[in-house]
Fold these 3 entries.
Entry 1:
Amino acid sequence: MSFKIDETSDILIEIRDLHFSRGERKIFDGVDIDIRRGCVTAIMGPSGTGKTTLLKLIGGQLQPDSGTIKVAGHDVHKLSRAKLYKLRQKMGMLFQSGALLTDLSVFDNVAYPLREHTKLKKSMIRDIVLTKLHAVGLRGARDLMPSELSGGMSRRVAMARSIVLDPMMIMYDEPFTGQDPISMGVLVQLIRLLNDALGMTSVVVSHDVKETAAISDEICVLSEGKIIEHGTPEQLKKSTSQWVQQFMYGMPDGPVPFQFPAVDYAQDLYGVHS
Amino acid sequence: MLSNTVQYLIHAFWHVLEHAFQRLGRSHIFLFHIILGIPSVLVRPLLLTKQIYMVGVLSLIIIIVSGMFVGGVLALQLYYELLKFGAENSLGVLNAISLVRELGPVVSGLLFSGRACSALAAEIGLMKATEQLSGMEMMAIDPIKRVIAPRFMAGIISMPILAITFSTLGIIGGHLIGVDLLGIDEGAFWSQMQDKVSFSSDVMNGVIKSIAFGFVATWIALYQGYDAVPTSEGVSRATTKTVVYASLAILALDFVLTALMYGEI
């Protein structure tokens, strides 16, 4: 099966007029995004805006209602299953939970994609796995089981596993959630370092503004199914949009109200409903 | 008012029916994908061996103990009834036929649902909840081929072996009670059994039943786990549903198979 990856164009992921709904709820309402090759692009927005859903759409795990998502020139949702799997070998993904296989050791988890997709010798697989584990600082933890790892370590192992096939891009789903400051610092540094050292493209989905802004080349801010702002972190910090200001500086009230929509407070207290 | 209630009830009934048919349809598509994934299991025998250990070998203790007790109790019950007709020497044959035709496949099937199938549903459900299945898909590894199909094959292979083990231990239990405790003639016990129990129509029909039970129970377990809502409550519901549906399916299927094999319905 011939399957060519376009390695020349400047835009690696091209999303056009993306529409996606869950039941009655519209998640994306005409989203357009270009993700440039070799850059760290952050997709930001409050919880529930569909950031993780966007990654699953890019990875072909979900089908959009309409619109196209092209990765390296291929329309992800028009590929056959075999070709989609070929493309996925070039796409790494780091899940929020790490998604490590719990019955395999750290070493076997990282070696798993190599054993499934290549016919490399055992000694070669060992060397590659140890190199990747060394890159995330966990070469010494190779014999541990996932249940023996902390949250930060799990994500670093998952990171090693997602780069083991030397992908052209890697998608990070909320990599900093629930991490202590040291683990967070390590992950922040690793994302930028791996992107630059391996010449990859990174898509980081997060709502941790400070950490994400520190390593991103470009940020897209999602709200109510649309991209409301995009640009460099500096451009976003200077944005005149009240919404972007509220999000970037974590203000409790603003265009996104503190109060969930409800009937008038006084009426509610007296039990009088309009 | 009454017409509104009737309308509501019809609507609710229709909704439940529609949902049930959707799930039934999805479960058949799921089965079709599993069957397509079986050849990939055959080229990776280690995956299958590990699952046979998890599903079959780890179920042996409960099967052995239950088989002994069921065989012993059956012999005890039969002895006092047969004694009234002076036919206590037929205890061996009755005990063996009851076990190999019915009790072996059905009781071991029910125990298999409770021990192995519930574990399968919980394991797959948790793999889904912790994004392990999604993770495999994103690594371009088909979870149906690597996770589901080996467990399905393991269930089908293990179930008849467990049923045969159950029946064998039941006969030994019957021997312990009938011959060693109640004093039935040992020669009559074994010779009547040898004479009256047919390998092709009794033993093999029992084996066929247990293969069918293994197929259905494992399919239900894997589907419930794979289709579970990825939360702790969802996994818990999937596990419960597995045991209930698999047990009911085994009992219903047993009736149909018995009617086909021995009846003239």
Note: Chain B has a mean pLDDT of 93.
Entry 2:
Amino acid sequence: MDEIRLMAHLVAGYPDVSGCLAAAIGLVEGGASYLEVQIPFSDPSADGPAIQNACAQALAEGYSVAQALDFIAELHIRYPNIALFVMTYASIVVTPGVESFVRTLARRGVSGIIVPDLPFDADEGLDAACRREGTITAIPVAAPSMRAERLAHMAALGRPYLYAALRTGITGKSTTIDEETLRFLGACSAGGSRVLGGFGIRSHAQALAVRSLVHAVVVGSAFVEVISHANELYHNSPRARDEAIRTNLAHGVQELVSGPP
Amino acid sequence: MSDKGYFGPYGGRYVPEVLRRAVEEIEAAFEEAQQDSSFQKELMRLQKEFIGRPTPLLYAENSSRFLKGADIYIKMEGLAHTGAHKINNAMGQALLAKRMGKTRVIAETGAGQHGLATAAACAKLGLDCTIYMGAVDVDRQQPNVATMELFGAHVVPVHTGSRTLKDAINEAFRDWAASFVDTFYIIGSALGPSPYPDMVRTFQSVIGFEVRAQLAERQLTPDALVACVGGGSNAIGFFAPYLDTEIPRLIGVEAGGRGPAPGDHAARMTGDGARTGIVHGYKSRFLLTEDGQVAPTHSISAGLDYPGIGPQLAALGRSGRIEFRRAGDQEALEALQFFARHEGVVFALESAHAGAAAIALARSLPRGKVVVVNMSGRGDKDLFITAPYFRPTEWAAFLRRELEALQNKEALRRQAPAGPEVHYG
């Protein structure tokens, strides 16, 4: 079987409350195994333009962290068997207090948190807070530019999951899978963590090339673009737009997971 | 110096792993360069020949007499090449970039002063230069954009987020994450991930050491130093020789803007608008919403409206070594007029905030006390803000005439047959 285990990324609140729910439904119907919900931050400097614009648009509509938490809770009730991860930036986590934020996520059924600007060795107590909750884990983000020693250190933490940013740079552009990348992915899994391989994957063919090296393939920018496209086409009719988001994403995921029909 | 990148509770290196190595390489190169006498010698030569150091320390005797209080001295940092203190740091980091073998430099800029300084330093040192600038700032700071381009810099308007300085910083980080093999990111203020706060302070400390020597020549010691604080690079450089002493008083002046309501000012150390947060790779005091989103700010001076403050300044404010005040838009304009009339010196709007606090302080102190205010920039760049304020009618008429003349010339050029081409050389 050439099926891909997929972690699908979406931005909470983009294009709006009903639109992001339609997106999540489409992603799950298409066959995503994990959902990575990004809580929008005003200054997402580790994201590419597609995700950055999605975050900016959600915030411009007044979308709040409380609404994102409600959205996450709803997803967990609808899909109790889909693992929910949250991605956001340090400011969103430390402002209410790390402990309190982690507890809130855990209570809403989130099983992992990804904060790229909280390094694993200066995480403001994120990992400790997750351990105290027991049902949620802090997921460190690795990059190929890391020194070998540091990457080995990160992998040796043996966290349940490790997020591997496959391309040196930012989400959105294409990924080529070369020897160096393969070595990098090997190093990521050295401590027994399940590796979530992300950044830049857009096709079943690309996903196949890394499938055996990662636990799940992460796709983000490509899906955000699908949503943006539907949002532009049907901006006068929220119902038609939500339907387009749902079906287009379901097809998109299906194709990524199983290959072109 | 920081303790492993921290100043008390603030500072640190909160960057995604993708950027960590780039920052570590800069740290190592900076430490080496500090020990290398040939690097220091070359920097000193450029400071003298290119930047125009030392900048004068002016005794503001008319102002002091008028105010009937302490003696005010003005550090004329705005006489540095490109019009502000920014060049001290831009040149230092550009020289470091060259030493590291980097061929390309990127930088963010708000009002354009750091972009201008970086573009000039890169032109001088032969480095390729890209400046990220919020689209809103590009529109309102055209003179600086034109000059940066004259220096050969590629100015990239940033259309994301609030399209101002903080978004330009995000875009520079994005570029750097994909380009650090050959590219050096010159941050313009004493903030960002460690080692930037230490590095920027070091390159700006030339201001404070010059002031100390210039006062000593006159057998004076300062009772108070006053500087404006946006990110805080001019303040920390000016205060640097005195951080571990008890005297003089060190006074940082933030932008009070239009008033104390959220969004109307950029005061992080006075009032209760700020929170401790982590943004742009460091922990400090920031203007954030309850959710942790970066909040909107306002100041008449584009250089003071950044929502965060350098971590060392935040720590020194917390410990009490630095006193923070705020000055509003109106007070800054009045201070600008005051020093122009009494001393023949035009402060930049940013520095005029420090000027306003210095006036108030000098009034409250007895004669013989010494107050030094850092005029971190000169005011030429603010003509398009100050002229409509001081001379609205005449300025509007002038702009209309200029526009008409430009349009007529354009129309004539289009009608007339092509003239003979001019060749140079």
Note: Confidence is low (pLDDT under 50) at residues 168-173 of chain A.
Entry 3:
Amino acid sequence: MKTKAWFLLFLAAAALLLAGKGLVVQVLRSNLLAKPDFLSASLLAVQKGTKLELIETQGNWYLVRGAGGQKGYIHQTAVAESKVSLGTMVPGKKGASEDELALAAKGFNEGNEKKLRGGKGYNFADLEWIMEQNAALAALAPFVRDGRLK
Amino acid sequence: MKKLLLIALCALLLSWRPPISVKKLSKAKKGLDLVSSATHKISEEEEYYIGRAVAANILSQYPLWKNAGFTRYLNLVGRALVLRSGRPEIFGGYHFALLDTTEANAFSAPGGIILLTRGIVDMAGDEDELAAILAHEIQHIVSKDPLKAIKSQRMKALGTFTAGEAMGSSNQVVGILQDSVMDISGTLLQKGYSRTQEKNADLGALELLAATGYDPGALLAMLQKVKAVEKKKAKAFSAHPAADKRIAYVSSGVKAEQAQSGRQARAARFRKYARR
């Protein structure tokens, strides 16, 4: 039984080596784009933690494939290399993957912010108004074009 | 079957590790101690939460100008610049907003929250000059200058916590967060960045303006306006170096960058939004 488990582990490791390099979205929100250009059409919205498969690199851009097979471009600054720990695949071993640990905010996080909320010297109510006022990516392309920007 | 056994044997050989001696365990523990006492490195997500707290602190000192139309326009100009910057994607995205004060100033909180006062927006004659102010602040974010304002002792203290303690929200971590926020706010509102940081932000802004299609000369024009205000001893860019010094190196930088077309068209939409 144990031999079978180790055999499966070996096969999984071999599959990982043969498969494309894994990437994980490290920003809250991003997009898979039609071209390696921020002003091109968005094909798929992706969120923090979304796993992607690297197909090829083009300058500062990655051509990737999402879990649903959707291909698109994403900027290098939006993703981190996905390090799959073989340790977490060992039968019976539990715990967070390296991805999960890397993405968790150690030190300063949402929980700490909650403790500051309502305290003297912090105005989070107005901050939330600012966070809601965002220019959509779709509005940016005509803005750039009309202003003869690049 | 023999092949199967051979593969399984290979897997076992690959996974086999010699038993760890007590001596080695002791070495490993020392290594772990070194890691836990190392200076804490701020992740992108932490930068976001520190930035939120810094912005919330500034908003407790300056009223927010809730002009949705102009704020949206400001975000479009800012995002157009950001896409050509060295850090186009940031954990929570860039956000630009206005403070309702006649004081002429601009602040860049970590994580991409950039606040401009009505005073500085009123000084800008057109979109290119507005972009020049934003480009300078974006360069501070690209260089992570606000984070460099945090005293090293804070990160050393955080480095001594175990992963579990640091990931929680203990009073000690919250205390370090508050102290870090005060370090950054103090730099943004009073102390200011170093001259080298300011010079790099100005020169980087010239390149960013040119890369986006804005006229780099707009930064020089803005600095000349600031200089004129400084002569009247008004409160303008109080935490920045004197405009005279900045004008000298920006002038030579502008010559290297090409002037861009379409400034008139951008000036027209600036007037449209500024009137609102």
Note: Chain A has one domain: 2-106.
